[in-house]
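Dear support,

Our group has been running a series of protein-ligand predictions, and this particular one with zinc ion is the one our PI (initials K.S.) wants archived with full inputs and outputs. We had some confusion internally about which version of the output was final, so please treat the block below as the authoritative record. The input we submitted was:
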Amino acid sequence: MSFDQSAVLPELLALSHEFGEGGLVILGEGNTSCRVDDETFFVKSSGSSLQTLTANQLTLCRFERLLSLMDRDDVADTEVETCLLESRSHPAAFKPSVETFFHAYLLNLPDINFVGHAHPIQVNRILCSGLAREFSENRQCPDEIVCCGPISLLIPYVDPGLALAKRIRQDVEEFRRTHNKLPRVILLRNHGVITIGSSVQAVRAAMLMTVKAAEIFTGAQLLGGLRHLPASEIERIENRQDEEYRRKMLKI
Ligand SMILES: [Zn+2]
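Confirmed final output from the archive:
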C-alpha cells in the first residue's frame, strides 16, 4: 500500500503536535512515524521536538537497511549510527531518531501504517511501579477495550534503540501467536507507551485512551482498590457489532 506523501505528512505532524501540546512528552521525548510505501517511511528526526515538529524534521527512511541490522547480533554503537544515517532516502535529511528501528519493524506488520510513541506521566507512574502487569492485562471501562484492545503488551525495560526494537519484535511475535492478533498498545516498563494502527486516528485514540485509563487505574487504586471488568464483559465488548460500527466511524 502506498500513501500520498502530501496527505500523510499533515496527519503525522498534527498527531506529533497533539502529543506535545497534550503533555504526553516534553523536550525531545517520544517519536511518531508513518508508512509511505513498501520501501520507505517518515519518522521524527533525532533531537527534534514533537510539539514544534516541522515537515523537514521528519526523515524519510528505507526499511531494508534498518531491518537487516535487526537480524544481526553484537552490533557496535558506531554501526548503529552509520545504519541510521545510511537509512535516509536523502543524504541531506536529518538523522532519524534512535528509535527508528522499532518504527521500521512495527510499520511492516499487517495493516499498520502509523506508530506513535510518548512518555505520559500518568502511564509512566504505573510502568515505574509494581502494578505495570496488572495495568497491561486488565480493563476498567468499555471504551478502553474499543480503543486499546482487550489486553496490552508489556515489555521489560531494555536499552532504547536497536536492543529495544529486537525485544519488541520478539514479544510482538509471541503476542500474535498467543492472541491471534496484534496488540494496539505496547507498554514499555520504566519508559513509555507505543500505539500502532492502520490510521492516524487509531494511534491517537489508543494513546489518549491509555492515558485516561492510567488516570482511572491510579485513582481507583487510591480509593481503596481496583475492580477490573470481568473477562466475559471484555470479550462481549470486543466482539459487539455496534462497537465494530463505532470503530469504523471513528476510523480506529
Ligand atoms: Zn521513548
